[in-house]
Amino acid sequence: MDILLLIFLAVVGGVVLLITVKIKKGARERFIQEHRLPSLVSKAVLETYPHLTTAQIQKVLLGLKQYFQICSQAGRQLVAMPSQVVDVAWHAYILSTRQYQQFCQNAFGRFLHHTPAEAMQDRTHAQTGIKRAWRIACARENINPKMPERLPLLFALDAELGIANGFTYQLNCQARNGDGYCASHIGCSSGCAGYSGSDSGCSGGGDGGGCGGGD
Fold first, then answer.
1. Of 1, 5, 14, 138, whose Cβ has the fewest other Cβ atoms within 10 Å?
2. In this predicted model, what pLDDT tens digit does every residue of 74-94 receive, in sequence order?
3. What superkingdom heads the lineage (predicted)?
4. Single pTM value for the model
5. Which whole number is the average pLDDT over 7-22?
């Protein structure tokens, strides 16, 4: 009888823990969605890309929030940054150290660092980050990651906004002629990725990803 009681309590405890985790993740997602980014972020994006309109900059800020949500969903796993313009916004936010630190604590329960691919253990590790970013972004926007009919926002922004030296992705991989990265084959190689464990800067570039975050 005691053994059955222990099993019952263990099962109940597991269910309660799972529900608690889901509630916490949902609360963090809402926090990120409702979070008001400091004005210095949009100013930095405009200074770097003066051709962008106010509406386009707002789209970049939305992309940054979506990236943070993907990082939250991925837990402590590596997530690469697919967009150069969103990466600029992220880097600008980090410069507001106290605000960013408080945001990270509420959004992730830890500090989300900005780390280059050179800090990764190996290239394969960095490649994993862009694959994960693609998979989660597609799932969030109801896109088939292997046969996409459109690009998720984070993977579409650089080309859509005409970002110089940005990361561009093509749906028609056979006709791309070396221009941009093949969307359905993302993860074959990667440029710059990141994880919680270093606060170094990032140069961007590579095959299919900029900087990133995770652990």
1. 1
2. 998 989 999 999 999 999 999
3. Bacteria
4. 0.76
5. 47
Residues facing 80 on adjacent strands = 212
Token digits for 91?
Answer: 């880097």
Other Cβ atoms within 10 Å of 152 Cβ, number: 25
**163-182 confidence digits (pLDDT tens):** 998 999 988 776 656 567 77
